[in-house]
Amino acid sequence: MKKFLILALLPLSAMAADDKPHPFVGKIERLDSAFDKLVAPGAQIEKLAEGFRWSEGPTWYQGAVVFSDVLANTAYRWKEGMTAAEVFLQPSGQLTPAPGFRETGSNGLGRDARGRLLLCQHGERRVARWENGKFSAIADRFEGKRFNSPNDLAVRRNGDIYFTDPPYGLEGIAKSPLRELDFSGVFRVTPDGRVTLLTKSLNFPNGLGFSPDEKTVYVAVSDGAAPRIMAYDVKADGSLEKERVFLNAAPLRGPGLPGSCDGLKVDREGNVWATGPGGVLVLSPAGKVLGRLNTGEPTGNCCWGDDGSTLYITANYFLVRVKTLTKGAGW
């Protein structure tokens, strides 16, 4: 039987006290006056943990932030009072070693309607659930063919899981001989396990998230030639229509601004907090750039945590956070 290294969930009193202030990194850039309603003037980017190979896909789970190190095939856990992130799941994305992968670990994480942990597992090429000490597959094939390497996911209130499937986890990426699908899709899996293709028009779909009313879904595209965020209307049957560019990130690139469009989350007012050049871009519902949480690192993803007003960010080797004046959609 496959064994997993799992973090023992200790009461806070049993953990080492974190009585030192966290160091500040990067800078917060205010590009529009509307940004002042979202992030206080005195806010800082706090570094919480470090030493990862490529941190990704955070989610708030059982009172802590859980996140992936995709290259280390490990998921970590951090909460207030801990002096360092601790291993939560190892392995997290590839359970049995196999050749042909450049990234084996879990990537995007989330929670289902019952609060259970969901994982995009590169090494197993599936979306899975972690429950009662074991993984179970939610979706691993479309029309009998294995997915490329599911990357990120978002869950609707009705339980539908939307996820992206670029080939980043595979050696050779789009040229990998392991590919069974010749496209990178955005998919939906319903609570009864039915998988449908929503679009295959994007070459490298990545992070995704819903507007507060769930009538719009945003999909980041990690295309080096054309980094962008797309928007789609969500129809009554869950399918998508009216594809359009929400943000063209190419003009935002420049010296000292590493990173591209990757993960994203949405707040309760409909503002989109999306990784991009320089860190996390804060966008109005109309797509206007209001500000930037400039981490100084290529930045993978973010999530809301604590009471819903703290934005946790996975930035290359680090886990950082910013206290905000808003809350995530659904909090």
Word description of this protein:
This protein is mostly beta strands. The chain has a single domain, classed as Neuraminidase. It has strands at residues 5-6, 24-25, 27-30, 45-50, 55-61, 64-69, 74-78, 86-90, 106-111, 117-121, 126-131, 134-139, 141-142, 145-146, 153-155, 161-165, 185-189, 195-199, 205-210, 216-221, 228-234, 240-248, 264-266, 272-276, 279-283, 289-294, 301-305, 310-315, 318-323. The strands form 7 sheets. Strands 1-8-7-6-5 form a 5-stranded antiparallel sheet, with no helix packed on it. The chain is globular, with a radius of gyration of 18 Å. The termini are far apart. Residues 1-19 have low confidence and may be disordered.
Largest β-sheet summary: 5 strands, antiparallel
What's the overall average pLDDT, rounded?
94
Amount of helix:
under 10%
Number of domains: 1
**Number of strand segments:** 29
Overall SS class: mainly beta
- The CATH homologous superfamily is called TolB, C-terminal domain
CATH 2nd-level architecture: 6 Propeller
Note poorly predicted spans.
Answer: 1-19
CATH first level: which class? Mainly Beta
- Trace the largest sheet across and list its strands: 1-8-7-6-5
- Radius of gyration from CA coordinates: 18 Å
CA(first)-CA(last) distance: 38 Å
CATH topology, by name, is: Neuraminidase
Apparent shape: globular
Query: In sequence order, what are the helices and strands, one letter per element?
Result: EEEEEEEEEEEEEEEEEEEEEEEEEEEEE
Strand content: 35-45%
Counting DSSP H or I runs of 4 or more residues, the number of helices is 0
